[in-house]
Design brief:
Shape: globular
Strand content: under 5%
Largest sheet: none
Radius of gyration: 13 Å
Helix content: over 70%
Number of helices: 3
Oligomer: single chain
Amino acid sequence: MKWEKDLYKEIFDSVLSSLKIRKQRDKNFSIDKITGELKSLYITEENSWAGKSRVKEIELEATISAYEVFISEEN
């Protein structure tokens, strides 16, 4: 559905942009920290609780994808 693709892209772009800004502004920034956050997101995804809305699923998928892209660009 179009709304799902639009929402995914909006969240992905926002998260990726946020990560890039964090890298520039946070003097304590590290890829290890971002990798740890990504691992937490994977756990959240694996624990997919019943009743999670499609919007929440898209939000988590897009966020994980943005983290993965950011980390791959940094390595």
